[in-house]
Write a structure and sequence with these properties.
single chain; about 300 residues; mainly alpha; Rhopdopsin 7-helix transmembrane proteins; about 5% strand; disordered N terminus
Length: about 300
């Protein structure tokens, strides 16, 4: 790094827009989305904890997913809402590093967890007689633990290699939070190692789980189509469609954001894509998983009936 380059200690987060006339409507919209995300995912955690009929591996993993969605929206949304409310855009170097670390950790965890959820559905539908043996309580806890471990280890590597760089081109992050791609754009160092890490680790934590999901559902669809009774097909298809909808929304946007060369980044477009997996998908997950899920609907009715007595 040459001596005439400045190294910044604070970053300026430009946010989703620089138009002051839409700041208030944007704040209200984002606050409502965040509240819906918290309430929806907390409701799923609560109903799974309260209702013994939902004490199954499928809902154990769904509970993990809901907790995960609360965690990673909470790493970005409160700070973004504060910035909109008081018009304070500065974020310290350390705060930026912590935000990126936890966000990337939660994103990676969700990638692996969604693959584990598809494996659970594969065992339940394709091998129902051996399901309870393969997917007992200890196995469920171990698989959930693996997903969290993979996510946080992935984030350690990216955070260390990102924040060893010098950021001297500018301190203005054209994004709504601290993330790997916008930070690499600001660096005046060679970021080829970072790009290689994004692509190679992205294969293991992004593309590999995604391919596992695809393979699982090829077997699942084949098994379900063999069921001659239309009513017998309805329940497995409803749970699978919910999961596939989440996978399509999440993986489509997350892989696009991370697993590609830095030279192809466009911050204005990319931050809109990141809104899809960072804000919209966590808000929609409770709706997607409960809309056609008869078990959850029945559990909610049971709990409401018990509360009225």
């Amino acid at each position: 790094m040459s001596t005439n380059q400045s190294v910044f200690v604070d970053f300026l987060i430009l946010g989703l827009t620089d138009l002051p006339n839409i700041t208030v409507p944007l704040f209200i919209a984002l606050l409502l989305m965040y509240m819906l995300t918290l309430m929806g995912n907390l409701a799923i955690i609560l109903i799974v904890q309260l209702d013994n009929n939902l004490n199954t591996p499928m809902y154990f993993f769904l509970e993990n997913l809901s907790f995960l969605d609360i965690c990673y929206t909470s790493t970005t949304m409160p700070i973004m809402l504060e910035m909109l409310l008081v018009d304070r855009r500065a974020l310290s170097f350390l705060a930026c590093a912590f935000q990126m670390y936890f966000f990337v950790a939660f994103v990676g965890t969700e990638c692996v967890l969604l693959a584990i959820m598809s494996y659970d559905r594969f065992l339940a539908i394709c091998h129902p007689l051996r399901y309870s043996t393969f997917m007992n309580k200890n196995v469920c806890i171990a698989l959930a633990g693996i997903s969290w471990f993979c996510g946080f280890m992935n984030s350690v590597v990216h955070t260390v290699f990102t924040f060893r760089l010098h950021f001297c081109h500018s301190n203005r992050i054209n994004y709504y939070f601290c993330d790997i791609p916008p930070l690499l754009v600001l660096s005046c160092d060679d970021t080829s190692v970072n790009e290689t890490l994004l692509l190679t680790i992205g294969v293991f934590i992004g593309w590999t789980p995604f391919l596992c999901i695809i393979i699982s559902y090829i077997y699942i669809i084949g098994t379900v189509l063999k069921i001659k009774n239309c009513h017998g097909r309805q329940k497995p298809f409803s749970t699978c469609i919910s999961h596939l909808t989440v996978v399509a929304l999440y993986y489509g946007s997350a892989i696009f954001s991370y697993v590609r060369p830095v030279s192809t980044y466009s911050m204005k477009k990319d931050k809109l894509i990141s809104v899809l997996y960072g804000i919209v998908t966590p808000m929609l997950n409770p709706v997607i998983y409960t809309l056609k899920n008869q078990d959850v609907k029945k559990a909610i009715k049971r709990q409401m009936t018990l509360r009225k007595k």
